C-alpha cells in the first residue's frame, strides 16, 4: 500500500497512502489453526480495526504534509508530519495480518484457494475501480478513457485501491509460499523474509531517487512479500514484559526518526518531494521497524486484554462489537476516501497547528462513522453485499 496517503505526489511514493528472532520469541506453530478460539482471535480483530482507523487518519493529515494546505516547514506542517509519521505502520500491518491468517500450511488445492480469495476481492476491485474512476471523471477532474485505462494498468485506479492489487498479487503467490512455510525451517523463512524486505527497500529507494522501476498492476505486490511472510512468522510471538517495553521503545524511536528525517530531507532538497516522501514509504527502514513493532505490540495488547476480560467475565459483548467492527473494516476502507474528499472539499484544512489538528480529527470521526454506516447498509443489500 505504498501509495495510500498522498493527494499530490507520485504514485509510487504517496505518503497517504532485523535478524532472525530467537526460538522462544518467534515460534512456528503446528499447521492446525491455533487462533480459532475467541481469545486467540481478539488481537487480530483489534489490530485490523486499529489499522482501519489509522488509514483514515493518514489520509486526513496527508494533504498538509504534501503542502496542499500549508508551506513546507511551518508549525502546521511539522504538526501534521509528527502525526503522520506515527501512523505509517497501518498498511504494512494489514499485510502482516493477511500473512498471519493465510500462510499457515493447510490442505487446500489451488482451485479452491483461488476461488475463495478472489471471490472476496475480485468483485470489490472491479466495482470500486469503476465507481472511483467515474466519480473522479464526473466530479473531481476531467480524466479521459486513456488516462483511466492507464491508472488501472498501473494498479492505482484510485488513491487507495492499489491495495487490492497488492492483495491480489500476494494471493496468487500464497499457495506456493505455503509450500515454503510447510517445509522450510524458521531460520530459512526469516532469511527469505529479510531478503525480500531488503529488495523492497532498495526497489523503493531506486524509484524515489532515480525515478526508475515504477510499479504496475502486476508487480505492485512484490515489495510487500517480506511483510507478508513476517506476519506468519510473528503470529504466535508472545512478548515478555521486557520485550514489550523494548518494542515500545523501538516503535517510538522509529516514529521520531521518521518525522525528523522527513523534515531534514525535505529541507535539504527544497521542500516536499520524492526524496522526503521516501522516508514515509512503507518500505523505508524506519517504517519497517515501526510496522513490525506495532504488529507485536498490538498482538501483546490484544491477547492480554482478551485474557483479562475473560477472567472478569466481560469478554463476550466487547468481543462481539470488536468482531463486528472488524468485519466492516474492508468496506470502510473501500468507501472512506470518497466520504473524506467530499467532507474536506466543504471544510478545507486551516493553516494553524491546533485548528488543523482539530479539523482533521473531526474529519476522521465523521468519515469513520459515515463509512461504517454505509458499509453496514451495503452489506444488507443482496446485490451489493459482495462489493464490501
Give a structural overview.
The chain is mainly alpha-helical and 388 residues long. Helix content is 70%, strand content 0%. The protein has one domain. The chain is built from 13 helices and no strands. Helix 8 (225-234) runs parallel beside helix 11. The two termini are 18 Å apart. The chain crosses the membrane at residues 49-66, 86-105, 117-135, 159-177, 189-211, 217-234, 246-270, 282-301, 321-343, 355-378. It is found in: Cell membrane. Residues 1-11 have a biased composition (Polar residues).
Q: Which residue ranges are poorly predicted, with pLDDT under 50 across at least 5 consecutive positions?
A: 1-39
End-to-end gap: 18 Å
Let me know the number of strands. Answer: 0
Choose one word for the global shape.
globular
Fraction in helix: 55-70%
Q: Roughly how many Å is the radius of gyration?
A: 20 Å
What string gives the helices and strands in order?
HHHHHHHHHHHHH
Biggest β-sheet description: none
**Number of separate domains:** 1
State which percent range the strand residues make up.
Answer: under 5%
Helix/strand structural class: mainly alpha
Number of contiguous helices: 13
pLDDT averaged residue by residue: 85
Pfam family, one: Acyl_transf_3
InterPro entries: Acyl_transf_3_dom
Membrane topology: Multi-pass membrane protein
Subcellular location: Cell membrane
Question: What is shown here, in short?
Answer:
Residues 1-36 are annotated as: Disordered. The chain has 388 residues and is mainly α.
Set out the fold topology:
Layout: H1 38-65, H2 75-85, H3 90-102, H4 110-140, H5 145-153, H6 162-183, H7 186-210, H8 225-234, H9 241-268, H10 274-280, H11 285-312, H12 315-347, H13 353-378
InterPro entries: Acyl_transf_3_dom
Subcellular location: Cell membrane
Biased composition (Polar residues): 1-11
Amino acid at each position: 500500500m505504498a501509495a495510500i496517503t498522498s493527494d499530490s505526489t507520485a504514485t509510487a511514493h504517496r505518503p497517504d497512502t532485523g535478524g532472525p528472532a530467537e526460538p522462544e520469541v518467534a515460534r512456528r506453530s503446528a499447521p492446525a489453526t491455533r487462533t480459532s478460539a475467541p481469545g486467540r482471535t481478539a488481537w487480530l480483530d483489534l489490530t485490523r480495526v486499529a489499522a482501519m482507523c489509522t488509514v483514515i487518519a493518514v489520509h486526513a493529515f496527508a494533504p498538509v504534509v504534501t503542502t496542499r494546505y500549508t508551506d513546507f516547514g511551518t508549525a502546521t506542517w511539522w504538526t501534521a508530519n509528527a502525526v503522520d509519521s506515527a501512523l505509517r505502520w497501518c498498511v504494512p500491518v494489514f499485510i502482516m495480518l493477511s500473512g498471519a491468517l493465510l500462510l499457515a500450511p493447510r490442505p487446500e488445492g489451488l482451485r479452491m484457494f483461488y476461488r475463495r480469495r478472489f471471490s472476496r476481492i475480485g468483485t470489490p476491485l472491479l466495482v470500486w475501480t469503476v465507481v472511483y474512476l467515474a466519480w473522479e471523471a464526473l466530479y473531481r477532474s476531467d480524466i479521459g478513457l486513456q488516462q483511466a485505462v492507464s491508472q488501472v494498468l498501473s494498479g492505482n485506479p484510485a488513491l487507495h485501491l492499489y491495495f487490492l492489487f497488492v492483495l491480489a498479487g500476494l494471493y496468487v503467490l500464497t499457495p506456493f509460499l505455503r509450500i515454503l512455510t510447510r517445509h522450510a525451517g524458521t531460520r530459512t523463512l526469516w532469511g527469505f523474509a529479510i531478503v525480500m524486505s531488503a529488495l523492497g527497500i532498495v526497489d523503493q529507494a531506486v524509484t524515489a531517487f532515480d525515478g526508475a522501476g515504477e510499479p504496475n498492476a502486476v508487480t505492485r505486490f512484490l515489495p510487500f512479500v517480506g511483510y507478508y511472510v513476517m506476519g506468519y512468522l510473528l503470529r504466535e510471538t508472545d512478548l515478555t514484559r521486557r520485550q514489550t517495553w523494548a518494542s515500545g521503545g523501538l516503535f517510538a524511536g522509529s516514529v521520531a526518526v521518521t518525522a525528523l528525517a522527513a523534515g531534514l530531507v525535505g529541507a535539504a532538497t527544497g521542500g516536499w518531494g520524492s526524496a522526503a516522501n521516501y522516508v514515509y514509504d512503507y518500505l523505508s527502514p524506519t517504517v519497517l521497524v515501526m510496522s513490525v513493532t506495532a504488529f507485536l505490540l498490538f498482538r501483546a495488547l490484544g491477547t492480554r486484554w482478551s485474557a483479562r476480560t475473560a477472567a472478569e467475565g466481560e469478554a463476550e459483548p466487547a468481543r462481539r462489537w470488536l468482531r463486528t467492527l472488524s468485519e466492516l473494516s474492508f468496506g470502510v476502507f473501500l468507501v472512506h476516501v470518497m466520504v473524506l474528499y467530499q467532507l474536506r472539499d466543504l471544510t478545507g484544512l486551516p493553516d494553524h497547528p491546533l485548528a488543523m489538528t482539530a479539523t482533521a480529527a473531526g474529519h476522521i470521526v465523521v468519515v469513520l462513522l459515515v463509512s461504517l454506516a454505509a458499509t453496514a447498509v451495503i452489506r444488507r443489500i443482496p446485490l451489493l453485499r459482495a462489493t464490501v
